[in-house]
Design brief:
GO terms for molecular function: ATP binding; pantoate-beta-alanine ligase activity. The protein is of the alpha/beta class. It has helices at 11-23, 39-51, 79-88, 99-102, 122-125, 129-144, 156-168, 198-203, 206-219, 224-237; strands at residues 6-8, 28-33, 54-59, 93-95, 148-152, 174-178, 241-249, 264-272, 275-282.
Length: 283
């Protein structure tokens, strides 16, 4: 049986544990998570192990990226199961701070990202979100001081924001995106999928099918506007409420009008019942 990882709950304890790894000339990969781990998270850990000799996984449900109307209190928390999964993958350290450790009394400094954080996608519907993400990830990077950090491509705009932040602020961390892990029918794995009823779970695969349809049409030479309109119609016909269904430049997230505009990415966010789902696909 694999040994349980060392669990650090304070910054001094984390620093001691990381320093001990550094003394042994270890390279360190960080996998930031909010817990409720699934096979998609496990794939991030496995990629981290290929990119560094030691792995730190953070588990912290970050309150500053949730609006008052969102699901912070109800967000799934599965600590025992999470630790069992991480032990099975031989993770070295789990960084599990409380809110007071991350945001102590008097905390007054926040990161306000621009660029891809203001692309008019997630930020249009969750204007608070990327400030919360950038601040907590900036803290995680300075706390752990990893050589590399692994993020899933499912949260594609977040990946672009974090990559830009690490580069702009010279944080010395190489941010690596890991491909989206999907269920057999194409639904992107997400901690929020547990909110879906059995019927909604079957309906949710329309996001994957619509993106695949639109991407195929664009690759085949169709104009972007009708190809994207057809996919959006598929999603709406299934009963989902679209926040956005757009194709953007895959690196800058700038709007595009033609396949010639550069590498393309389709991004979608939609509500199914009370659950909000996001996904994306390369064209």
């Amino acid at each position: 049986m694999s040994a349980s990882p060392l669990i650090a709950r304070t910054v001094p304890a984390l620093r001691r544990a990381v320093d001990n790894l550094r003394k042994r000339k270890a390279t360190i990969a960080l996998v930031p998570t909010m817990g409720a781990l699934h096979d998609g998270h496990v794939s991030l850990v496995r990629l981290a192990k290929r990119r560094a000799s030691r792995v730190v996984v953070s588990i912290f449900v970050n309150p500053t990226q949730f609006a008052p109307t969102e699901d912070f209190g109800a967000y799934p928390r599965t600590w025992k199961s999470d630790i069992a999964k991480l032990a099975a993958e031989d993770v070295d350290i789990v960084w599990h701070p409380g809110v007071a450790a991350m945001y102590p009394e008097g905390f007054a400094t926040r990161i306000a990202p621009e660029g891809p954080a203001l692309a008019g996608l997630e930020d249009r519907f969750r204007p608070h979100f990327f400030g919360g993400v950038a601040t907590v990830v900036g803290k995680l990077f300075t706390q752990v001081r990893p050589d590399v950090a692994i993020f899933g491509e499912k949260d594609f705009q977040q990946l672009r924001v974090v990559t830009q932040m690490a580069r702009d602020l010279d944080l010395g961390v190489k941010v690596i995106g890991s491909r989206t892990v999907r269920e057999r029918d194409g639904l992107a794995m997400s901690s929020r999928n547990v909110y879906l009823s059995p019927e909604e779970r079957q309906t949710a695969i329309v996001l994957y099918r619509a993106m695949r349809e639109s991407a195929g049409r664009i690759r085949a030479g169709d104009s972007i506007a009708p190809a994207m309109a057809g996919g959006a119609d598929m999603v709406k016909a299934a009963g989902l409420v679209l926040d956005y269904y757009e194709v953007r430049h895959a690196e800058t997230l700038a709007p595009v009008t033609s396949r010639k505009d550069g590498p393309l990415r389709i991004l979608v966010a939609a509500k199914l019942g009370t659950t909000r789902l996001i996904d994306n696909m390369a064209v």
